[in-house]
Automatic annotation (TrEMBL):
InterPro entries: AdipoR/HlyIII-related (IPR004254). It comes from the Eukaryota. This is Progestin and adipoQ receptor family member IIIa. The gene is PAQR3. Belongs to the ADIPOR family. One of its GO terms (cellular component) is membrane. Keywords: Membrane, Metal-binding, Transmembrane, Transmembrane helix, Zinc. It comes from Scleropages formosus (Asian bonytongue). PANTHER family: ADIPOR/PROGESTIN RECEPTOR-RELATED, PROGESTIN AND ADIPOQ RECEPTOR FAMILY MEMBER 3. The chain crosses the membrane at residues 87-109, 129-152, 164-189, 195-214, 226-248, 260-279, 291-312.
Length: 335
């Protein structure tokens, strides 16, 4: 009888373990001890003034349970201030945060480099400057939204965590827009009509996705597949202007198509590979608990997204040089 009662009792909440030097800390700081468990586990005394405990999959709140193959290393129940400080704590989000933070710096540096060196050397027009600024700005927004989500997903408030998740998705749409803008602009450089048609349709689709995100069901588990389908169609729509562009250029024999089409294919290959990792949770699915900190699918997805954006940016520079050096063919102007 006693045994049954014992098992039916919920376990007591974890009690903060107060380190001896905590007694010397000001009272104001001690108040935050309600929300975190202080302890020696994963304690980084130099970088974080107060340790942030890591939790196992079973201990985290439901809204953080997305990947059962990542069994440990979760930050949870943190106030905003400690979410920010946790950037220096080794957790299962460390690689996710830093990969896109470095990605942000990469695209920021590329923007500075483009504006000060690449575009002036290429004799770029004002339009070129605008297009590259938009493209790289979108990539930077995408990176920062992702950093924000991975930093604040462990917030003690579910509402705050979900808001950041929504922003992460909005960031992905913005990143996709950043691919479309220079792609469509340079592919249809010689045909203003189709350039406008595709830019407007892409913009309309991105806006539609933004509005879909406001739907209360958008972030729920039930909409998991629909969410993936929405982002896949947003990316796959790019095949429509690509095929149209090949057709307008008279097929695969044209020099322009031969130069640029393989680059589009590589971009889609990286995107498909990234999405495959994202959706399949491979490789941690086969090594549950062994890739908690390094080597998990989401980390591969992050790195491939940076690689894809970088590849596409370099391709846009390539096609811009081509367009500046070669006159517009008549068949494109009249199409
Ligand atoms: Zn992410």
């Amino acid at each position: 009888m006693h045994t049954v009662l014992f098992f039916r009792q919920p376990p007591p909440p974890p009690r903060p373990i107060v380190r001896p030097d905590d007694f010397t800390m000001p009272q104001k700081v001690l108040k935050s001890a309600h929300y975190i468990e202080l302890g020696s586990y994963q304690y980084w005394p130099v970088l974080v003034p107060r340790g942030i405990r890591l939790y196992t999959y079973d201990q985290i709140p439901g809204f953080l349970k997305e990947n059962p193959y990542i069994t440990d290393g979760y930050r949870a129940y943190l106030p905003s201030r400690l979410c920010i400080k946790s950037i220096f704590v080794l957790s299962n989000e460390t690689v996710n945060i830093w990969s896109h933070l470095l990605g942000f710096f990469l695209f920021f540096s590329l923007e500075v480099y483009d504006m000060t060196a690449v575009l002036p050397a290429a004799g770029a027009s004002r339009e070129d400057y605008v297009i590259y600024s938009i493209g790289l700005f979108c990539f930077q927004v995408c990176m920062l939204c992702s950093v924000g989500y991975h930093l604040f997903c462990c917030h003690r408030s579910e509402k705050t965590s979900r808001r950041w998740a929504a922003l992460d998705y909005a960031g992905i749409s913005t990143g996709i827009l950043g691919c479309y803008v220079p792609g469509v602009f340079y592919a249809f450089y010689c045909n203003n009509y189709w350039r406008q048609v595709y830019l407007v349709t892409v913009l309309a689709m991105i806006l539609a996705v933004f509005f879909a995100q406001i739907h209360p069901q958008f972030l729920t588990q039930q909409w998991h597949r629909l969410r993936s389908a929405i982002f896949c169609s947003l990316a796959a729509y790019g095949l429509v202007p690509t095929i149209h562009w090949v057709w307008l250029n008279g097929g695969f024999s044209t020099a322009m198509v031969q130069a640029f089409f393989p680059r589009v294919l590589v971009m889609y290959f990286i995107a498909a590979l990234a999405f495959l990792f994202y959706i399949s949770k491979v490789p941690e699915r086969y090594f549950p608990g062994q890739l908690n900190y390094l080597g998990a699918s989401h980390q591969v997805w992050h790195i491939l997204v940076v690689l894809m954006f970088y590849w596409w940016h370099q391709s846009a520079i390539y096609i811009m040089h081509y367009r500046h050096s070669e006159p517009c063919p008549n068949y494109m102007l009249q199409a």
